[in-house]
Amino acid sequence: xxxxxxxxxxxVWAIPAENVLTxxxxxxEEINKIVDLEKRIKSMETEMERLKTEKEVPKVAFxxxxxxxxxxxxVGPFHNxxxxxxxxxxxLNFGSNYDPNTGIFTAPVxxxxxxxxxxxxxxxxxRAVTAGLFKNDQHIVSTHGHQADGFISSSNGVSLxxxxxDKMKVNLYPGQWIFDNGEHHHSTFSxxxxxxx
Length: 197
Fold this sequence. Notes:
alpha+beta; Jelly Rolls
C-alpha cells in the first residue's frame, strides 16, 4: 500500500498545477497502472525465489570401474545368488552419493537420473557376462553377452525417476563373470542427476 501511495504522490507532483483540478486526470486508470505494477513486482519476486531454489539442487554425478589395480582380472563366477558388483576405481563422485565400499548409489533428491552399465568378459563355453541394474532390489535392465572365445562386451542405459533414498546397484547373475583391467577400465557403472523434481 505504501508503494501505491508513493506512486500516486509522484504522479500528482508530475502533473502541472493547472491540470490538477481538471477532468483530464483519471485516478482509476492511474490506480490500475499501479496495481499492474505491483502484480509484476510480485511475479518477479516469485521467479527470483524459484531461481534461488534451483541453485540449491545438488550436483550429482558418478562414474566408476571395477578394478583399482593394474592388470587383467575376472570377477566371478558366484553360485550363491546375485552378487553386487563393487566398482572400486572412482573416476568421479560429485555429491559423494556412490559408495565405493558397497557399489551402491543412493539418490539424494527426487528426480530423473540417467544410468549406464558397460560389461566385458572373456568368452567361455560355460559362462556369459550377465549383469543387471537394480533399483531397490528390483531388476531394471541387464547387460548380456555370451560366446566361446575372445572378448565380449555389452552395455545398457536407462533414465529413471527416483525418490530420495532410492538405491541403485549392479548385480552379477549366478554362474556368470565379468572382466576388467585396472589400466583400461573396461567394465563401468555411471550415473547422474538429469533434473530434480
